[in-house]
Records
---
Amino acid sequence: MNQMGIGKILSVTIWMIFVTVLVVQAQSGIKFSTESEIKDDVEKVVCKNSERLDAVKKLFVSKGADETKVKIDDFNFVKNLVVEKPGKTQETVVIGAHYD
């Protein structure tokens, strides 16, 4: 296969992936952040430890988390931000990260 043939196949493949992502996004109601939205979020990162928990909470709410489903579990010296996002099944998925 020549270079032009490979280029066409690659272009069509990339286009199909792009269209598939758009269709899945539209059907699932998932909103992907744009590059500029990600850049804005990164620029708003709080550097002071004592302010980070509140900043992370605000970030989750700004991205669509139901504020009534956002809570803080306090364990003496550690505070965990917990966001509950009900799904379509009874299964539980836990995603963890550090904000410090």
---
Amino acid sequence: MVAAFQLAYTLFQPICGWLIDVIGLKMGFLICALIWSVTCLLHAGAGSWLHLALLRFVMGASEAAATPANAKAIGDWFPKKERPVAAGWAGVGFSIGAMLAPPIIYVAHITFGWQGAFLLTGGLGLLWVALWWWGYHSPESHPRLSDEERAFINQDNEAIGEKLPFFTRAESDW
């Protein structure tokens, strides 16, 4: 089960990064979080080890968006000189989540059974998807960001280059 999740997580990180680059952070991460949440809910109905392994694979593939989405959000929202500290605080958030998840899942499992633990986490994921849809804005479209704040964020950002298809091989002059 762990291998199914980890294999997908490993394979899909660059694919999720490409998706986020092509359709944008808000929609790319929303789609992956929605797939993750629905897949989590479906775990409660797994009828065999193969079914569970397939669900774990899909869950790993969709969760793989977290790392590239984090990098994209930091790149969008922070000037270069502040990005290392922002990445450090994001790592703190990941660690806190990793520490809080086991006791929450344990209580859900004891209270509602193993299926209930998956239903709880899937439901929380759907709540997060709704909050993300409603609350996330890029710096360019944020309704409460002043022009001065926007200029500070973008002070040393480079122009976005041409977006290439995922499997495009770069030509070399060597």
